[in-house]
Structures are given as structure tokens and as C-alpha cells.
Amino acid sequence: MAAPPKVRALLLAVNALLRKRRYHAALAMVKGFRNGAVYGAKIRAPHALVMTFLFRSGRSACTCCPVSCLPC
């Protein structure tokens, strides 16, 4: 199924813009921000939610190294 002419013209215009070397740095920044947002939504947010439920009471009691205050 072919795309409508307006969509095809828009796609060609966007592709021409992306091929220009002049916008390479700006597009790389946009891509980095997008990848960071996706990583945050897929990995960091669920991990933070799970850790909140696991360690809700605060600091865990460590019995294997009573001298050190660092977590094991």
C-alpha cells in the first residue's frame, strides 16, 4: 500500500534534512536525550520502584561485617 502524496513529500523532506552534515551534532544530542529517556523509563524507574519496596524500612542490617558501615 502506497503512502499518500503529502506523507511521502514530508518523509522526503525529513530525510533530506537528516542527511545534511550541518545538523549532525544537534541530531546526535536529540538522539542521546531520547536514548536516555528510554533507558530511564525501561530500566531505572522499575529498578527504583522495586528497590523502594524491598528496602522500604531504610538501611538494612548487615551482620557479616559489623565493623564496617559500608554495605556488603
Automatic annotation (TrEMBL):
Name the GO cellular-component terms. peroxisomal membrane
Highest taxon of source:
Eukaryota
Q: What InterPro entries is this protein classified in? A: Pmp4
The record's PANTHER family line, in alphabetical order, gives: PEROXISOMAL MEMBRANE PROTEIN 4
Question: This chain belongs to which protein, by name?
Answer: Peroxisomal membrane protein 4
Gene label: PXMP4
